Amino acid sequence: MADASNAGNDHKLQIWQVNKDRLTWMHQKIADTPRILNQTAGKSSCSIFKVPQSFIDVNGRCYQPHIVSVGPFHRGDPRLKMIEEHKWRFLGGLLKRTAAKGLNLENYLEAVQPLESQARDCYSTAIDLSADEFVELLVLDGCFVIELFRKFAGVVAFDADDPLLSLSWIYSFFLRDLIRLENQIPLFILQRLFDLTLISESSPNLVNLILKFFNNALQRSDEFVNSRRNVTGKHLLDLLRSTFIPTGYDEGNETNRSNTNVIQCISKLRRAGIRLETSENDSFLAVEFNRGTIRMPTITIDDFMSSFLLNCVAYEQCHRWCSKHVTTYATLLDCLINTAKDVEYLCDRNIVENYFGTDAEVAKFINNLGKDVSFDIDMCYLSGLFDEVNDYYRNHWHVHWASFKYTYFNTPWSFISALAAFILLVLTVAQTFYTVLGYVRPPA
Questions:
Q1: Which residue in 307, 255, 293, 317 sits closest to 65, CA to CA?
Q2: What is the rounded distance in angstroms from the CA atom of residue 19 to the CA atom of residue 435?
Q3: Residue 289 in 3-state DSSP?
Q4: Counting CB atoms within 10 angstroms of each CB, which of 329, 344, 374, 392 has the fewest?
Q5: Are 157 and 224 within 8 A, CB to CB?
Q6: pTM
């Protein structure tokens, strides 16, 4: 019997043999470097990311270019071929203009080549381009973006029949495409090319040109734009985002950590006596709470701002080294807004200007904006405001008095009904009093 058992075991050992080809494949996979999310993605130098699929599932193509590609992620997309051809035209015009400085195309490539490795480290995904191809891409896209800024600022004249100027619909697509997270090149590349191709020292600096280009959509004051001319950023999206972070609204640190919770929606806050009013500030992030009133600057929700907010949130979620200001603000809006009625109230208070669609569409956009985001609420820049609002909301005296006012004095009809009921009550009490008085002191 023992011999039979050993024979069976030997038979099993003979059946199971390691597949040498499979073993080699496994060792190769172990040795391979991740490419979709490469090793540099966790470093502070990495700032241009492929957006997570979970965000794309909710918000669709809001993170991908619709008309022009910038950088390697969407290079060669046949849908973007029309503007790709004009990039070369813009580069040719720039070369003609800088020939007076003795510059040629080789000088452009030589200026960017030392930054090639540093630029690669800015991308979360491995770039399947040789060093020469990648440098060519950076020069072509970088010069196109800079020329676009110069032309729209009037520093360089547009050709009278330039289709990129005469077709008015193109400009709005440029605005949105140039702030998409997947459609960026490092700002230091733009700065190198800008400095190289600068003709006049009296021309606006690069940041000023960038802010003026986007200000056609944001409509911020010239004083504000000029005050931000020295702001910095990793790329165009980060630069524009940085201009909205107001002074004095810094995020917390470990020493002042508190047990913070999100706040209630507008309808519940109003029942507790908390009001919402508009405030004057160039940044919609500058939200304040004082004596039962949340004061919020006006924010215009349109196609550009919706794209900007979505891409800022995606950037803050992917880049652990940047602040989470826009994510925090998105969470605030998501807390306040549950229904179209909430959006209607914010519009009535001039806190939201709706050029996006119906109130229901804005409510859906806001709810999707705050979906699946993560941040440390105890450390966010609005943690103090959340705490103060919640403390006020939990104050029973405020809640009962506000609920009484909301129920009986919120509309003219409810006020009239309450007044009629009060008068009826007074008359009833008076009638009862005189009836009782007639029994106690009957007339002589």
A1: 307
A2: 106
A3: strand
A4: 374
A5: no
A6: 0.84
